[in-house]
Backbone:
């Protein structure tokens, strides 16, 4: 287990003082090396040597100061086995190597999820993915789609290969954050039965590296905010139209990628085209007040006419009464589900790490772009504080569209699928399946007549 520390007023403080410290048994004087903001490196002096058992970090560095493509080439040539993990503003990604070849990959970016890859490539539609996920944890989406006849087994293999390739490319393109080389035995059962040539992947990455270098001349990094300058002219590509509709001046490029379910490379490419066409502008600070309500965009990208308000017998507009919406039953069912998931993980003694990871994803808006989740955090029992959730719903109700309760439910559903995915990596198959069954039964209580 990795112990976490925080820097408080210049002091290094362990977050969990009860757990065994990795510093136990170590002594001497350690010098703090000058490193990137995302990385701390201490070196003992004078060195006394020694080693620890795997898994262990055998190499770490600044992704902005060392080209990761060169590191990948070295790993291939040396026929290295283990994991390279990269922490960047775009998310955490890792690639598994065995004898210098790529055997698997993982990512916490929603755009890298297998379901999203399947939809982007056109093998299935979103309705089929949602149907496959009913009663199934997200980690089993590929198998579920095959079992339901929505997808051929060989097409699933193609998509998994594409998913791993895209994660590899995202790591090679990374120019911020830190990387870690972990000497760890490769778990064949936990990885997909694939093997990709590292050299072939690197050759394919060269094109994207050149393209990204071109984009970076105008878009230095993904933490810039994007504002809309004008509406669609009806001639934009589908992804461009979709991203243009999300521009409110309060999302960064990385945030837009999460909301549009696009990789960092793809969202950077789309934003670049919008800038070139005069549809958008960049700023290093968010807009405090939106410029106005987003126009309704039709399927062709044209702005739809506003619906006139009803007019009474006096000729004055009649204020339409807002339908009564009570989000509390929805919040309570999902909170019950969240606690069920947390309780199952707690049986494995991993609940603290589970909640910490979930809160990290929630704070980074990796789970959902819905404003009702902003500023919220999971409590120790796995639930979200209901008063804060209700307050967020009321404050952001106008931003949730014509069906605010459905949008609210979708946001919590996105959170639920993330928690199930995380739990699936920790639970045995029988416990995982039993949890999925209970969640399905709880979700059925929200279905209307």
Residues:
């Amino acid at each position: 287990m990795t112990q976490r520390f925080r820097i408080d007023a210049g002091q290094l403080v362990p977050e969990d003082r009860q757990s065994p410290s990795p510093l136990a048994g170590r002594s001497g004087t350690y010098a703090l090396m000058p490193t990137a903001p995302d990385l701390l490196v201490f070196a003992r002096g004078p060195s006394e040597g020694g080693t620890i058992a795997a898994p262990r970090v055998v190499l770490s560095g600044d992704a902005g100061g060392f080209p990761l493509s060169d590191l990948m080439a070295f790993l291939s040539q040396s026929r290295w086995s283990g994991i390279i993990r990269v922490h960047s503003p775009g998310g955490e990604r890792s690639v598994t190597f065995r004898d210098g070849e790529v055997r698997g990959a993982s990512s916490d970016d929603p755009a890298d999820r297998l379901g999203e890859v399947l939809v982007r490539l056109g093998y299935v539609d979103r309705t089929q993915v949602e149907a496959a996920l009913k009663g199934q944890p997200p980690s089993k989406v590929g198998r579920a789609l095959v079992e339901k006849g929505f997808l051929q087994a060989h097409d699933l293999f193609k998509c998994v290969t594409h998913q791993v390739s895209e994660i590899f490319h995202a790591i090679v393109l990374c120019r911020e954050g830190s990387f870690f080389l972990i000497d760890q035995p490769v778990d064949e059962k936990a990885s997909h039965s694939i093997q990709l040539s590292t050299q072939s992947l690197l050759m394919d990455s060269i094109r994207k590296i050149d393209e990204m270098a071109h984009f970076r001349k105008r878009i230095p990094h993904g933490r810039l905010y994007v504002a809309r300058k004008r509406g669609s002219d009806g001639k934009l590509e589908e992804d461009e139209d979709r991203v243009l509709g999300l521009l409110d001046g309060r999302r960064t490029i990385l945030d837009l990628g999460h909301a549009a379910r696009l990789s960092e490379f793809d969202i950077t490419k789309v934003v670049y085209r919008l800038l070139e066409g005069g549809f958008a502008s960049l700023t290093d600070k968010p807009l405090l007040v939106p410029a106005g309500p987003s126009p309704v965009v039709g399927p062709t990208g044209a702005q739809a006419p506003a619906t006139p308000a009803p007019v009474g017998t006096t000729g004055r507009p009649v204020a339409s009464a807002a339908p009564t919406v009570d989000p509390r039953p929805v919040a309570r069912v999902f909170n019950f589900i969240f606690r069920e998931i947390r309780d199952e993980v707690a049986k494995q003694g991993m609940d603290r790490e589970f909640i910490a990871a979930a809160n990290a994803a929630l704070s980074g808006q990796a789970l959902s772009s819905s404003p009702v989740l902003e500023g919220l955090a999971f409590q120790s029992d796995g639930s979200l504080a209901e008063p804060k959730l209700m307050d967020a719903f009321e404050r952001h109700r106008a931003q949730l569209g014509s069906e605010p309760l459905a949008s609210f439910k979708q946001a919590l559903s996105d959170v639920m699928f993330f928690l199930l995915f995380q739990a699936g990596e920790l639970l045995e198959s029988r416990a995982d399946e039993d949890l999925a069954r209970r969640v399905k039964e709880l979700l059925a209580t929200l279905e209307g007549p």
